[in-house]
Structure to design on (425 residues):
């Protein structure tokens, strides 16, 4: 097991890829800046969160995915939605609870998804619940024969919840093609990371589950992309889940209502000087990938796009009041038309038959082989032919029957009789 690798293989990007990363970070920031204006005009319904200073993580991680892969975004992953192909107008309308929004005004912030086309699972909680959900998507798709990777994000605070640990253990046990991005932005609301977890590197959490992890500078978009690409490729190759800790800083409060006066000034100043977009602009200009003219073109493109998207969103109506009572219960096809996309004959696998060869075989998974290459015990009874129990004065309590490669355990007749007698009393 390798843990917390900090060096990634150098990977050359094409000029277009370098520029795409820049464009999406700029789009991410511009979309959020527009929403701050809408919030101040009282046009946003509910809270408004910000990923200022964390754009390189949302963009660099999701850019490493293929179209067929699945994501579940958190509140600070608008950049990932944009890379996946969600138009800014949907994000605006969702925050404004408009009728034309993805949830038709029923839900807010990033609580929306697109299962059919973009493969986005709507977030149910920011605090870890999507880890088992995305593990389920990953192993479900593997069962269907789809070679996809699933990815979600978690905060430093969210990595201390029970479901984080249950979920990651589940993913590791299932060898799920799943990548988890831990955005360590040093704060969980007003709690500094040092006061909620006694670890220097949160990537070390992976050790508990026997999975690999990486640490990456979350303000360096190329490093984030390269690391994510490597992790995604390894997960797709069947190496199991991978955790990436991206070190960064939450530049604004938890949400618009929080002035974050608890953040030390020196800390803020340190990170403001490491703005991911400013750093990347410097890199692009040194590498002669972007000049003043190219930058002006992108500025203009963003201005035009966002003015149109914002206008569309503002002109969309609020939902009619009676609309609130619909869509509470699933009513079948008029509610949703999600069908599993089978990539193997359906008769082979409904019901699943163990004689059917897996379409996507994952080495070491389900074979009973331990990581050391030896046969790992699957059943308790595999460890010894006769299990002696100290409370039984060394007499056998269980016997093991081996037949045709199968191992089953059964209680010795004496012990079984004793147990049942005891039960009857
Ligand atoms: C059970 C529960 N408690 C509290 C909250 C409110 N809440 C949402 S995110 C959050 C802080 C999460 O911090 P972290 O995981 O570090 O993510 P960050 O906000 O820094 O991105 C809190 C307290 C919640 N959504 N659910
Ligand atoms: Mg945090």
């Amino acid at each position: 097991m390798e843990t917390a690798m900090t060096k990634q293989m150098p990977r050359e990007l094409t000029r277009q890829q370098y520029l795409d990363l820049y464009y999406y970070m700029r789009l991410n920031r511009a979309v959020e800046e527009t929403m701050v204006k809408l919030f101040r005009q009282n046009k946003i319904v509910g809270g408004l969160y910000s990923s200022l200073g964390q754009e390189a993580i949302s963009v660099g991680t999701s850019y490493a995915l293929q179209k067929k892969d699945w994501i579940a975004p958190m509140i600070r992953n608008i950049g990932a939605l944009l890379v996946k192909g969600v138009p800014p107008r949907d994000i605006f309308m969702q925050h404004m609870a408009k009728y034309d929004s993805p949830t038709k005004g029923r839900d807010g912030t990033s609580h929306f998804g697109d299962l059919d086309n973009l493969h986005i699972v709507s977030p149910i909680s920011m605090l870890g619940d999507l880890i088992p959900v995305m593990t389920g998507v990953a192993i479900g798709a593997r069962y269907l024969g789809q070679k996809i990777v699933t990815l979600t994000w978690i905060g430093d605070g969210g990595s201390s919840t029970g479901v984080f640990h249950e979920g990651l253990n589940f993913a590791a046990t299932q060898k799920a093609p799943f990548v988890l991005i831990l955005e360590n932005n040093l704060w969980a609301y007003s709690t500094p990371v040092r006061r909620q977890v006694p670890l220097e590197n949160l990537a070390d959490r992976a050790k508990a589950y026997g999975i690999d992890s990486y640490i990456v500078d979350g303000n360096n978009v190329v490093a984030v992309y390269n690391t994510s690409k490597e992790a995604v490729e390894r997960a797709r190759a069947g190496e199991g889940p991978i955790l990436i800790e991206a070190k960064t800083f939450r530049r604004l409060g938890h949400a618009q209502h929080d002035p974050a006066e608890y953040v030390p000034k020196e800390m803020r100043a340190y990170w403001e000087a490491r703005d991911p977009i400013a750093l990347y602009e410097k890199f692009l200009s040194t590498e002669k990938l972007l000049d003043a003219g190219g930058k002006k073109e992108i500025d203009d493109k963003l201005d035009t796009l966002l003015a149109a998207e914002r206008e569309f969103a503002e002109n969309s109506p609020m939902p009619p009041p009676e609309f609130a009572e619909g869509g509470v219960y699933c009513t079948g096809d008029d509610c949703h038309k999600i069908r599993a996309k089978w990539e193997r004959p359906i008769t082979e696998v409904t019901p699943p038959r163990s004689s059917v060869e897996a379409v996507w075989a994952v080495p070491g998974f389900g074979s009973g082989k331990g990581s050391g290459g030896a046969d790992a015990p699957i059943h308790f009874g595999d460890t010894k032919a006769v299990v002696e129990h100290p409370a039984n004065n060394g007499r056998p309590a269980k016997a093991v029957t081996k037949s045709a490669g199968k191992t089953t355990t059964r209680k010795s007749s004496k012990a079984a009789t004793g147990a049942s007698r005891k039960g009857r009393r």
